[in-house]
Specification:
The protein is of the alpha/beta class and 577 residues long. The chain is built from 22 helices and 14 strands.
């Protein structure tokens, strides 16, 4: 029997017994699994009570599936219509190549879909995921379809439990805040950390519901990597675990080529190029497995080394005027450039390698152009380069790898007299403008400040403005409400603002060695009035203070990576409290 429960008494694992409406629109439907994050979401929406079933409306997983021939007619019709509708969202030739041109392959995957969705527990979880995050639901189905078709294509034996894991690999995102999942901009480091928790949350949920251990392990381990850089357990995935490695590759390919809340879908060949970079230079995936997947999709990115069905070998050329399915090939033996014919009389037989030099050179040229446009003050062209280079980065990575790195390079050029001071100031001003533009995008997506007020002081001249702006915005991104003071060294003024803002935090940008004595004098005065004030000191010469007798007052950083580590001390403390 359903019963009405106040939100403060609602428990993780309950099942909604009645639709929840907000402004006459259905927010969640009957049968939705109540997770701790759903409870938090309802609180933020102002919902005070909900109707739930007295006992769970689902049974723990039982390894029983109904063959499609024995499905009740109404269920067969319903699931078939659902399958056809969902396949139109994923099975685009620009992503799938020709793998579903065969009617037999289409009917085979349809049968597998009907079989898995005939299980009430599997369907229950997938329906919950569809309500919580429709994009994640379609991605999960896409990974399931692509991995299933791949294993069939290469004739690998694979367990039903593993394939269940492919379908349910992201089920832990039921415990990820929906605002993060549907965020349109880049993730902050804190938001990314919340996303990573879906692996363990999925593992625990599936274990709790009695799914096979292999199914649970796919949910837990699908973000591990060959070199141990993945999560949650930092495993060095062995090549012998080829099913999991292939599924990891498919997971990345699907995420890159499908429409996401934060970006448009990527071309298949561009996604393949990223997978090759991850395999050849970052050692995240095994090269041979990456080759197998590219052969399966049969779309080959530029610089791919291939053997053709006529026995000739060559390299795929970049040419936006031709189809990715029928690329141009430069033959090694003769140097002749051919385009693969539309009658498929000659096709690619297999990939045998990839030349990373073109990709590395392209990256170098984009970076050089970025620096040139900064110095030239060309904001729009610099922004184009920035957007190209920042694809796939988290917000803090953009600040560290692009903005800070650019300022380091420009400062180095100035020190070598390769730049006039006026050019340095133009470049610095351009960086400030780009940061401001990016922050306009980011702040629309930020939650309310949770860390309190921080006063940020630039002790440097106007030359330090770009780096002070970097520091200021990193604090904003990580939950502080900032008050930026540009070029000020008046201790009484700083004290007055700290008092006015009731700030618990103060940060100085200190780039000149000569400023350290002033800094010590200022902080000594401030410490007398504000003994609990937390002080950050950031800048290339801040390390000098490490040996000072007042060093225990400061959190010192010489670069943005160290600054973020110092922030984490307080972020973690807040989480614990």
């Amino acid at each position: 029997m359903p019963k009405v429960i106040k939100l403060e008494n609602l428990k993780d694992g309950s099942i909604l017994a009645k639709d929840i409406y907000i402004n006459s629109s259905v927010l969640f439907r009957t049968g939705m699994l109540v997770s701790s994050e759903l409870i938090n979401y309802l609180k933020r929406k102002g919902v005070r009570s909900v109707s739930v079933f007295d006992a769970p409306a689902f049974t723990p997983f039982q390894n029983t599936f109904i063959p499609k021939s024995r499905l009740p007619e109404h269920q067969h019709k319903e699931l078939t219509a659902q399958f056809q509708n969902e396949m139109t969202q994923i099975a685009d030739e620009l992503r799938y190549g020709r793998i579903l041109h065969s009617e037999a392959s289409y009917q085979w995957i349809r049968g597998l879909y009907l079989k898995f969705y005939s299980n009430p527990t599997v369907r229950f979880l997938m329906d919950c995921l569809k309500q919580w995050d429709p994009v994640c639901y379609i991605h999960s189905l896409d990974v399931f379809v692509l991995t299933s078709l791949f294993f069939k294509h290469v004739n690998w034996k694979v367990s039903q439990a593993f394939m269940l894991g492919c379908l349910l690999h992201d089920i832990g995102k039921l415990y990820t805040p929906v605002e993060i999942l549907l965020k349109k901009g880049k993730l902050t480091q804190r938001e990314y950390q919340r996303i990573t928790e879906h692996t363990l949350n999925g593992y625990r949920l599936l274990k709790k519901m009695n799914f096979p251990e292999e199914t649970c392990c796919v949910a837990r381990s699908h973000h591990e990597r060959l070199n141990g850089s993945g999560y949650p357990d930092h495993l060095h995935v062995d090549i012998s675990d080829r099913h999991l490695i292939l599924m990891m590759i498919v997971d990345v390919y699907s995420a890159l080529t499908m429409n996401r809340s934060y970006r448009k879908p990527m071309l298949a060949t561009k996604a393949m190029q990223i997978l090759l970079v991850d395999s050849y230079t970052k050692h995240l995936f095994h090269q041979s497995m990456c080759h197998l997947f590219i052969n399966f999709i049969h779309m080959f990115p530029p610089a791919t080394k291939v053997v053709l069905t006529n026995g000739e070998s060559g390299i795929v050329l970049a040419d936006p005027t031709v189809s990715d399915i029928l690329p141009k090939i430069k033959l090694w033996k003769t140097g002749q450039v051919i385009q693969l014919p539309s009658d498929l009389s000659v096709t690619v037989k297999t990939i045998i390698g990839w030349d990373s030099r073109d990709f590395i050179e392209q990256q170098r040229q984009t970076w050089s152009a970025f620096i040139h446009y900064l110095i030239d003050g060309d904001h729009l062209k610099a922004l184009d380069c920035l957007d190209t280079m920042s694809d796939g980065m988290r917000i803090e990575e953009v600040f560290i790898k692009l903005f800070e790195h650019a300022m380091d390079e420009i400062s180095h050029m100035l020190s070598l007299n390769q730049l006039l001071k006026a050019q340095y100031m133009v470049a610095s001003s351009t960086v400030v403008r780009l940061i401001s533009w990016k922050m306009m995008e980011i702040t629309r997506q930020l939650r309310a400040s949770t860390m309190g007020e921080i006063v940020i002081v630039n002790l440097d001249s106007i030359q330090g403005l770009a780096r002070t702006k970097l520091m200021n915005d990193l604090f904003t991104i990580n939950g502080w409400k900032t008050e930026l003071l540009v070029e000020i060294d008046d201790g009484s003024m700083i004290s007055e603002i700290v008092r006015l803002k009731k700030a618990k935090f103060l940060a100085f940008y200190c780039a000149q060695k000569s400023q350290t004595s002033l800094l010590i004098q200022l902080t000594a005065t401030l410490h007398d009035e504000f003994p609990d004030l937390n002080i950050f000191v950031h800048g290339s010469h801040s390390g000098i203070l490490a040996n000072d007798r007042w060093a225990n007052r400061f959190r010192l950083s010489t670069n943005c990576s160290e600054l973020i580590r110092n922030m984490k001390y307080y972020l973690v403390s807040q989480v614990r409290t």
